[in-house]
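queue> holo job accepted (zinc ion)
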Amino acid sequence: MRAFAMLKIGATGWIEKEKPQMGPYDALVEPLVLAPCTSDIHTVYEGALGERNNLTLGHEAAGKIVAVGKEVKDFKPGDRVIVPAITPDWRTVQIQDGVPACHSEGALTGWKFSNIKDGVFAELFHVNDADMNLALMPDGMSLEQAVMLPDMVTTGLHGAELADISFGATVAVIGIGPVGLMAVAGAKLRGAGRILAVGSRKRCADLAMTYGATEIINYKNGDIVQQVMDATRGLGADNVIIAGGPASVLTQAVDMVRPGGSIGNVNYFGEGDVLPVPRLGWACGMGHKSIKGGLTPGGRARMERMAALVMNKRLDPGLMVTHTFKGLEHLSEALEMMHHKSADVIKPIVLL
Ligand code: NDP
Ligand code: ZN
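queue> job finished
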């Protein structure tokens, strides 16, 4: 079968692969819709995960089940399913010891597609533990909406969870690409009063306002710490969600959050051995400013809950789809579109 793969750091291409094998609890799925992620770009062009050779890319998919293992109870061939980016090993002692499922067998090992096994950018892909990791795609959900759930929606909302937002809080969201846009939506769903959204591209800023931002801060128009301080009479934000930018945004987040406030990070920091937490901004270690960072939760229950937000009209993530390709062969174009994001690109998708 054909697969679109990372050949080595810096190079992608089409390759032939054996059809995946399946265990008794697993499923084989053929994609109906796929999307590239900024993380695929980090993986290929920055070597974020280290060297990978001929690894199929992609972890954002909804599809149709082709086959299930003999122990799979709740799914059958023909079912249309949402496939989470994170598919943990649910039968691990680490999870029973309270380790978040994203890290079921060590840090980030719940993230399997396009990390430690072949991803979803192929004619067929394998899903471990189907009953625990797949969710049925509800009737009436569009493919545009469905393919935003595996990663963009759950990750952005996780930013809001990590930031621990209270009703009426003033929240700064740094970065309003698709993850940050869903962080804005998550902050609104969690009852934020004010949402200051930081970005520069107009298309993203307009959509941030649609999803619940109350003000836009352009990081190209001056120091965002100062802009947040000016907007809050020098008090700072109650919570900050980091969803984009270089390591310096962590410094800015610590500086702009008020004492006792909290920062939720879902951004990938790709440079340096040490991240820059400012000594004075962090009140010499005594400011009760918490910093939490996380990979998005995955699995079935999470996807069913994300789907419930869509089906009950709390959230329409399909609005983020700016470009639609038809046919598997367009995956390379879609990926390159994510690589060189022009002003009008938020999220490209590929329909099959
Ligand atoms: P995008 O590249 O689409 O968005 C990045 C955003 O950050 C843009 O709004 C951009 O502004 C903004 N930005 C860039 N530089 C700065 C800066 N100096 N100060 C403030 N804002 C800045 O990325 P995505 O939304 O697709 O993904 C965001 C991050 O989330 C990535 O690092 C990705 O790898 C990570 N990720 C993490 C996951 C997890 O589970 N934790 C899962 C999926 C993704 P503009 O373009 O408008 O200039
Ligand atoms: Zn991703």
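queue> The pocket of zinc ion (ligand 2) is lined by residues 37, 39, 59, 85, 151 (CB under 6 Å).
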